[in-house]
Amino acid sequence: MPTVSVKRDLLFHALGRTYSDEEFDELCFEFGLELDEITSEKDIISREQGDTKAEGASDVILYKIDVPANRYDLLCLEGLVRGLQVFKEKMEAPRYRRVSPTSGEPQRLVITEETAAVRPHAVAAVLRNITFTQERYDSFIELQEKLHQNVCRKRTLVAIGTHDLDTISGPFTYTAKPPDDIRFTPLNQAQEYTATELMNLYKTDSHLRHYLHIIEDKPVYPVIYDSNGIVLSMPPIINGDHSKISLNTKNVFIECTATDLTKAKIVLDMMVTMFCEYCEEPFTKETLSGDFINRKVGISESTERIAQLLTKMCLRSEVMSDGEQIEVEIPPTRSDVIHACDIMEDAAMAYGFNNIIRTTPRTYTVANQLPLNKLTELLRQDLAAAGFTEALTFALCSQEDIADKLLKNISDTRACHIANPKTAEFQVARTTLLPGLLKTLAANRKMPLPLRLFEISDVVLKDETKDVGAKNNRRLCAVYYNKSPGFEVIHGLMDRVMQLLEVKPGRDEGYHIQAAQGNRTRKPSETVTFNDDSSFFPGRCAEIFAHGKSIGRLGVLHPDVISRFELTMPCSALDIDIEPFL
Amino acid sequence: MDEAGCGGCQVISAEQRSSKHWELTGEGCEIAEQGSHEARVFSSIPDEGMPQGQLMKLAFGKVGFSKAMSNKWIRLDKGHEGGPRVFRTVENIEDSVRDKLLVVQKGQSSQLEEKEKSELKKRKLLSEVTVKSYWITKGSLFSTTITKQETELTPEMIASGSWKEKKFKPYNFEAMGVAPDCGHLHPLMKVRTQFRQIFLEMGFTEMPTNNFIESSFWNFDSLFQPQQHPARDQHDTFFLSDPAQAHEFPLDYLERVRKVHSEGGFGSQGYKYDWKIEEAQKNILRTHTTAVSARMLYKLAQKEKFTPVKYFSIDRVFRNETLDATHLAEFHQIEGVVADYGLTLGDLMGILHQFFTKLGITKLRFKPAYNPYTEPSMEVFSYHEGLKKWVEVGNSGVFRPEMLLPMGLPEGVTVIAWGLSLERPTMIKYGINNIRELVGHKVNLQMVYDSPVCRLDA
């Protein structure tokens, strides 16, 4: 969620009244904003860099306001004030018009084919007869920056360049050239550089270096020239110094180059509507019925009242001649309105969510539990009753946890691998619950022995038969940690689990355990295989069969496994698949 | 005391007292009687002196010689004819060590300064002794005959009836009992059980959320979340390298999703961008259980006749986010979904009110919010009595037509939904500030052992 910081007094001046912090917070809440923080430049600097640096900084009160990510029109003081004033019915929703310059001919921006290889779209507009004050100028620059960070996706989708029109002359050309053929003096530099040199220069620039990757490896770089060959900008990196705007600039040429044309238009609309009364795009109009709004929101207001509510949200609305339909003008500032439901939301907001009467839907349904979760819930209760304590461990872990530390090969684990882990803790999805339980033991070595832990949860295994190529598998895992291995304890727990699942001891229809065969080859038909008992102490591992199928293993863990998990005592473990018992 | 007085029954009562005093050691006694070693050396030496060798043979010779030398009572003539010889240097001496010891012996140790006593203690002539004594008085039940009291009732006593004649030692009700030997359920799972219970009480059916790995298609595209949305970035979502791609989709539905994103339709202008199947195929760890809701709603839409449904799920979701005291890379999402003809925003708020009332939260208010797949979207706030402010407790909204209509759901059907995390209410419930103390292997088992039952509305 983007945050806009505005000077409080300036905001109140523009709103025509002052508010207490609580009152303003309340107003924001109603309008779908959040007053995130009340601070000052001095506060911010002293918090980030210490009190000494903060000395002399401004202590003008700043409001930091969280704005919904799709409301680009609220990203600057001008837009915020306009939205709130119309909402409070203090002013009418503004209408925007396009006008031709007095000279008659509009400016032109010609786009050449070469740009297709790097950044194919560009749109442009002119703001005429603007008067900047320091505040307006700052807000203009800040809006550009906010748009760059949000809708422009850090300049990848759209980059904005603004120029003093009186220093350059159209028509303008947007083209692309090899980096060594582009040569100009960039913003705030004293000498000319080629594009190649510039890219090197900005490698160490704390701000610009983040954008270099967008074009760095392209054969040609985008560039905009005026009719005299003066470079306006090399988007999305830097503008030329020649055409830079200042407080005295009267006419502003705004260009947006983009990889996404829709977004470029949105951004250009934002720039021009926020800062002038001229606009090149006409209103779009939507018609919808008052009944639609009433039905969706759950209110019963007259069509006239609904039109009023929408107008309050900057959506100028009128009841049509049939008395039922409403014609809604969607200003170019409201690019978020793409469906009638977006208009419905504005009506609900203007009505006030908290004024809507809360009703109970009559939807009649019978509840059902997921059989797998129902079985899990029942087993958990009984495992706790059997003296084992429930652990809750992470589904993600390191490769080492499920392979090396368990004396297995990662290639034998059927593990799903994560492409972009920030740390080793998130390399794979677990293929067994055992590492999590052993790590829980290690973190609780100070607790009195014996420690008895269990977890019933999902592991993830690769499975070609699934649409995504992987599936979850619900497992029951338990460990017993004491001065003696306690195989009989874990064996007794297994017997108890079988009793709970109504499986009797016996070879065929019942359950039995037998010495594990070591690295038995896997049959292709088996969905879950336990073909590797290397994690267990040789001769102390048994495979569990129920209804003739292998469902898991139990045994005494290998001493190397114990020490790799930073444990010191013998430990026995049980690991079974509970899905066959559904 | 327990043996004699039997706890509270008070045959006698005894009060422990202790006192300290100074005593002479064995060597100290000898000195008090015969004088200090140095004094005895002095008096042993005649006027004509004594050979050093002879002096050293005396029992007190060695210690006494060096002390007498340092007191300058005697001198040593090393060059004397016939070997080193010791002479007196003064006429009279004052044996202050002996005098002090005599003072202590008379029981007047308080006359000496602490420094002097510790000096003598260092020379092992004095020691400090602590004497413990009991002050015995008659108890409230004083008696001159002794009856032995029984500690516990035995089977024999029951059989013979002898318990009627016996006196029993009283129990100490102040002490803690022996902890039962049992297992414990994890607090987060206890809270999960309660949330499941609430949904079941409200008639909601549980969704199959046992698929942590999901395609971007079901996790994002089917929800009308555009492909350039920041949530789909590398730094927000875990992508898979193996298996990297999903390979099976309902193709006609996929085409309708492509169209609504790139061209619009179903009354929408769409996002108007170049929708790519490669983005949709990317496998990820699901970022929300809403991916499962999408699958379930699609499945519902394929039925011949629409029937209203209420669904819920509580399961793990994954975010590749920066971790802190309240954020982990995985957490549990609670989700509720209702699909029926003609549901309103008022219905959503009403059902949320009922849901939160079951959690003991009755003061709710709603804030407009933005979410790519719901419109309207509302953040749910509840008034926290402890913090004296409104805190966010969940998110809710009405699924967009661009999500529902391509699935094939009938036009008049509205789907309302809400979600919240399981960890947050659990941390508040059990007063836990750091999420790592609750979830994962670093959990303190004592906390698990000690956690009370979970009654959310209490």
From TrEMBL, chain A:
Residues 281-358 form the B5 domain. GO terms for cellular component: phenylalanine-tRNA ligase complex. GO terms for biological process: phenylalanyl-tRNA aminoacylation. Its EC number is 6.1.1.20. It is found in: Cytoplasm. Keywords: Aminoacyl-tRNA synthetase, ATP-binding, Cytoplasm, Ligase, Magnesium, Metal-binding, Nucleotide-binding, Protein biosynthesis. Pfam families: B3_4, B5, PhetRS_B1, tRNA_synthFbeta. Heterotetramer; dimer of two heterodimers formed by FARSA and FARSB. This is Phenylalanine--tRNA ligase beta subunit.
UniProtKB/TrEMBL annotation, chain B:
GO terms for molecular function: ATP binding; metal ion binding; phenylalanine-tRNA ligase activity; tRNA binding. Its EC number is 6.1.1.20. The lineage of its organism: Eukaryota, Metazoa, Chordata, Craniata, Vertebrata. Belongs to the class-II aminoacyl-tRNA synthetase family. Phe-tRNA synthetase alpha subunit type 2 subfamily. Coiled coil: none annotated. The gene is FARSA. Keywords: Aminoacyl-tRNA synthetase, ATP-binding, Cytoplasm, Ligase, Magnesium, Metal-binding, Nucleotide-binding, Protein biosynthesis. NCBIfam families: pheS, PRK04172.1. The keyword Mitochondrion does not apply. Its main location: cytoplasm. It comes from the Eukaryota. CDD domains: PheRS_alpha_core (cd00496). Gene3D superfamilies: 1.10.10.2320, 1.10.10.2330, Bira Bifunctional Protein, Domain 2 (3.30.930.10). This is phenylalanine--tRNA ligase. GO terms for biological process: phenylalanyl-tRNA aminoacylation. It is found in: Cytoplasm. One of its GO terms (cellular component) is phenylalanine-tRNA ligase complex. Residues 190-452 form the Aminoacyl-transfer RNA synthetases class-II family profile domain. PANTHER family: PHENYLALANINE--TRNA LIGASE ALPHA SUBUNIT (PTHR11538:SF40), PHENYLALANYL-TRNA SYNTHETASE (PTHR11538). Pfam families: PheRS_DBD2 (PF18554), PheRS_DBD3 (PF18553), tRNA-synt_2d (PF01409).
